[in-house]
Write a structure and sequence with these properties.
Length: about 80
């Protein structure tokens, strides 16, 4: 599974407004780094971040572990609201 699709599936399972979820990959200057930007509704921001950022860190850990199995790239995930 693509890492962007994996991130999108995880985030959509957490939020209420699934239509507002946008997950995109952006190029970086380093070859072994992938930047994934997640945009969610402002109402769902707390669900995705979690208490003390635990949910966001769990998402990063899952996607990073999946990357280690295939591409072995370092994953950066930015979570933002609109």
């Amino acid at each position: 599974m693509n890492l962007v699709q994996l991130t999108e599936e995880i985030v959509k399972s957490l939020v209420v407004n699934t239509e507002a979820v946008s997950v995109k990959e952006f190029p970086t200057e380093e070859d072994n780094v992938m930047l994934i930007q997640v945009i969610v509704d402002s109402e769902d921001m707390g669900r995705v971040i979690g208490k003390s950022g635990r949910t966001a860190n769990a998402i990063r850990t899952l996607v990073q572990a999946s990357s280690a199995l295939s591409d072995n790239k370092y994953i950066k995930i930015d979570i933002d609201k609109f």
